[in-house]
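With this grant's support, we have settled on a layout for protein records. An illustrative entry appears below exactly as we store it:
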Amino acid sequence: MLFNSCEAYNYSVPYFYNKTGKYISPQWRTHDYVVVGLGLPICVLIILANMLVIAAIIINRQFHFPIYYLLGNMAAADLFAGMSYLFLVFHTGPWTINLSMEQWFVRGALINMSLTASVVNLLAVAVERHQTIFTMQLHSTMTKWRVVMLIVFIWSVAVVMGLVPTMGWNCVCDMKTCCTVAPLYSRSFLVFWAILNLLAFFIMVAVYTHIFIYVRRRSRLMSPHTDQPSHNQTVISLMKTMSMILGAFVICWTPGLVILLLDGLSCNKCEVLKYEKYCLVLAECNSLVNPIIYSFRDEDMRNTYKRILCFPWRRMHQHEGPSGIRFESVKTGSPPEKNSYNSTSLEPISPQSLLSS
């Protein structure tokens, strides 16, 4: 805690829960088992999926471009989200009784930082793709320095949003303003955080809608003058990608944001406690959906995943003779360099347009 400005900072966490009506049971209930049972496998999948994305971007030099740096940073944010939620899973339910106030604020700060970084990364990727498509380029013209500065800005916003309640924007010294979902947070902060995320959502809707309208209009103008069906395919692929991005964001985030807004607006009849943990699990699923949408739809990225996952197995069984001694075979009819794609090297072959991804 940075500002212990009143005596209430010496109170226990259960004291605030009792004041706001959020009862902490000392016994494990079915509700708690369900949350932990759903949270643990989701966290494991989030961590593994995003580690795979980061490894692919680091290994394959074909992905050393601004869009992939942003995707890697988003994967890092989602990885951090999975680890933060894993920490939350082991400090929830009856375990909350034993938390100190400092530990409670650390738990909340980790969640706020990770989820904010993930949302801001989604927004940054949307802006980058908007710039790339409207300039008709394969990759963005941003320099590495600008990409680094953008990544620093993203994490700076996430850190600030995570530390704001700890620095004083809470209800410890004014318990009349305490919310129910997070009993040590002020209602005004919950409303601010929810509106900020909703604003990012509407900006993404506007950006991708503008992209879709532009590409569709351009394809209609160019289709009579070209025999290639690539324009229509681009429009269809873009529609699918945009629908998946916006649909995943709406499904995963809207319930939680609505719960926060209702709690921040003191809706006593809304029963926010009945759904708040399930909404948190659903919001965390967005960190699992992100690598699927932004990475698995890229064929080159999928090929890199396959090489990474199959690399240990291929090293064990590659060209192993009856005597157990491994040797490299030489294919006839083509020079070695043309067979490099079939080797265990992770070098890229050819760039792929991001418009069709």
